[in-house]
Inverse folding.
């Protein structure tokens, strides 16, 4: 638990690093251009389609009539745009997460490595191709989970629980892999993801709830719908910073675990080696000297 909090505060401190702030503008620019481009071509048609779809439901019309009787008739005009923004929010969040993973995470892991773990060996256990496949596969699973859970969003508590949980799971899958891709071997990465799955999920879910904070703007009233062209870039930048913070949190946590794991392994190897006694040299058996034959007495002829 101490490592979890230590990594958290280090990630907060790194978020104000000039390099991190500068890196956050590239996903922001791409997302703003994409959002306004899609809005320019599809916003009116999307709002009209949603409004026509809502008119076909008597229950929705009864709910809107009830709002009018309460003096909230202005909400009828913003209900369809609000619903379009709510449905577009998961797509915005997913794209922000992937853009941060592609354009920011490698540079931020390198920053953490240079400042805290310069001697940590790089074993390159995850290639760029493997990282892309892992991210796309995890994103596909998250999209399927979001689509299947949408009917449950109509239950008030669940709309505040299910999407952040799904985003948190995706955050854990993507950023934990990328944090270890360069420095850990494939076996080391699998071992860390297995042994610390609980802590990594906690980081991902908390990051998912932080990422859900900008979505509360759309539930704050008609004024925010009218200011959507100004608030959408702000919300996108908040998403970007939240996922940048999550990436830094995973980087600090995972690289610390990797360093400790290698140090523990090295200590075990040294301890085993020190307990080995050198093999005793086998004593050399010297053959006993052969008895010399008894000397024969000399004869008188030998003396001469």
């Amino acid at each position: 638990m101490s490592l979890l909090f230590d990594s958290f505060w280090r990630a907060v401190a790194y978020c104000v690093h000039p390099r991190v702030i500068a890196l956050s503008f590239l996903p922001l620019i791409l997302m703003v251009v994409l959002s306004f481009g899609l809005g320019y071509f599809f916003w009116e048609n999307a709002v009209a389609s949603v409004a026509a779809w809502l008119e076909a439901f008597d229950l929705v019309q009864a709910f809107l009539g009830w709002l009018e009787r309460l003096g909230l008739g202005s909400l009828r005009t913003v209900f369809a745009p609000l619903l379009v923004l709510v449905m577009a929010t998961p797509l915005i969040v997913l794209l922000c997460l992937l853009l941060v993973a592609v354009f920011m995470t490698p540079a931020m892991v390198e920053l953490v490595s240079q400042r805290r773990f310069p001697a940590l060996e790089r074993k390159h256990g995850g290639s760029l191709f493997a990282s892309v496949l892992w991210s796309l596969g995890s994103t596909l699973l998250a999209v399927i989970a979001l689509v299947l859970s949408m009917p449950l969003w109509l239950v008030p508590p669940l709309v505040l629980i299910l999407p952040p949980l799904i985003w948190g799971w995706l955050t854990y899958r993507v950023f934990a892999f990328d944090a270890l891709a360069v420095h850990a071997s494939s076996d080391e990465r699998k071992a860390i993801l297995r042994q610390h799955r609980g802590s990594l999920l906690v980081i991902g879910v908390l990051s998912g709830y932080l990422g859900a904070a900008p979505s509360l703007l759309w539930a704050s009233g008609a004024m925010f719908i009218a200011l959507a062209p100004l608030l959408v870039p702000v919300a996108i930048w908040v998403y970007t910073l939240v996922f940048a913070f999550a990436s830094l949190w995973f980087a600090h946590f995972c690289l610390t675990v990797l360093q400790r794991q290698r140090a523990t392994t090295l200590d075990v190897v040294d301890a085993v080696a020190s307990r080995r006694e050198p093999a005793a040299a086998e004593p050399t058996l010297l053959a006993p000297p052969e008895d010399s034959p008894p000397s024969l007495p000399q004869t008188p002829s030998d003396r001469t």
